[in-house]
Amino acid sequence: MPGDRKSASSVPPGLRTLLAYRREWLVKDVVAGVVLTTLLVPQGMAYAELAGLPAITGLYTSVLCLLAYAVFGPSRILVLGPDSSLGPMIAATILPLIVAGGDSARAVALASMLALMVGAITLLAGVAKLGFIADLISKPTMIGYMNGLALTILIGQLPKLFGFKTDADGLIAEIGDFFQGVADGKAVAAAVAVGGTGIVLILVLQRWLPKVPAVLVMVLLAIAATSLFDLDRHGVGLVGELPRGFPPLTWPDIRWDDLGPLFVGALGIALVSLADTISNASAFATRTGQEIRGNEEMTAIGAANVAAGLFQGFPVSTSGSRTAVAERAGARSQLTGVVGAGLIVLMLVLLPGLFRNLPQPALAAVVITASVSLADLPGTVRLWRQRRTEFLLAIAAFLGVALLGVLPGIAVAVGLSILNVFRRAWWPYNTVLGRVPGLEGYHDVRSYPQAEHLPGLVIHRFDGPLFFANAKAFRNEVTRLALGEPRPVWVLIAAEPVTDVDTTAADELEELDESLNERGISLVFAELKDPVRRKIERYELTRTIDPAHFFPTIEAAVAAYRAQTGARWTARDRPPSQDELSQDGSPQDQPSQDRPSSRD
């Protein structure tokens, strides 16, 4: 039996699903695959052009990533493919490496090598079980990043929607060039009509008839309009006939000096792809009752990117919208993606001219409506109402994308997330506690200003680990409390939230205890966790801090203090002092444990 389990675990997850395939799933998977293909084809072409690549590469990419995920993917329902959030990142990476005038063959080679690099990064992350990397971007910064990305995509597609091109680089320049082009009369009325109608049609159908394939309906109507009104004669650009057949296995031909810039872009793309994949996998696993396997998902994403890169494709991610379409269509396994890939191959081999009359503004409409779905304005408003500092993080991430560019924007988003974690550890919430009649335990005096206290005893809670960055702030805060009037006899640290003490903090504690002892004040600890207590003993802090001043609970410490001094609980005749509230008397950023705040 152990040997059987070991051999079963060596089989890729997708194949394990296919080996346990149920006959009753077949019809539903085939139908879902047909429905999915109607979305894969137009979106694949649109997102390829968004990435600065020929439309056909979007179809090559879709086929290979679907087949690879069918073998290595642990989720029975996730759908991979070209993604609107990755398109601008791919373009920002490869376009600066292409000589003026453009070279589509070189662009494809660069994008394919980028996919291979993304694949290698995510494969290594999966093997090393580095799923936590996807958590480097907090939700507020991701909201801001996606809002900035949505605006960048929208502005970048407007010239295409209006039937002309610009050479601007950067959001501000693109806005200026777009309005200048319109003012110069470059806009094509027929293109505006096709693109604008396409946007309205997609949004209306998605809102009022969600089961109808909105993108397919719009694409078919746009092709019909081309035939009826000769749109190409009115200045509307068309996709044209796609190359027949499928590309051979190809190793990208690039220069050595391209590897550095491509690797930087690959890191950012891999991070966004992993975050998107883990998020979608979690959401759909919850809905379908499947188990989340983060490391296997990363391995599958890596395999899909490698497969795409070897066949003239570009980096891919999971798609929430396409996965939702497959789910609504009744998908039961990865066979849905295999059916979709097979239908695309048949189209490329037998019907390469199927979309030759598709107007370019229609593809712009597909991309623009996808960009709208990336933005999360309600989430931004919620941050403003609930937590102002996180709202500011979202705005900073948004400005990073909008003003600096897509790739610097992801660096800004990651940097802000890490700095926010460090900020919270650097300045954790801390407060004074008191007794509230009718409530068990001891409570924050900010929430209960009239909480009772024992004369000569200050109960201080510090909500975070003690380490090099905040140890001095902790020492200063305790010193301020000790110098308050009337002078305390004990400063009792409610240490249950203190999860660690490093050597720098240990030195600060030793100096703090010695300085308090000189003033006749005792530093006392209650509810210190056993692992932290063992570290304090290892640091030999008990040489200065009396071992009798460590208590298992606050109640035990209070009882010992009352037995020593005879103090009785006394109601406050004044609000808490500024020293008791905070360093500067202002509310801290983190809400107290007793009563959550509505905003910072």
Automatic annotation (TrEMBL):
Q: Which residues form the STAS domain?
A: 447-561
* Chain intervals for the UniProt region annotation (Disordered): 565-600
Membrane topology (UniProt): Multi-pass membrane protein
Can you tell which superkingdom this protein's organism belongs to? Bacteria
Q: What is its main location?
A: membrane
Q: Which InterPro entries match?
A: SLC26A/SulP_dom, SLC26A/SulP_fam, STAS_dom, STAS_dom_sf
| Record-given protein name | Sulfate permease
Q: Which organism is it from?
A: Streptomyces tauricus
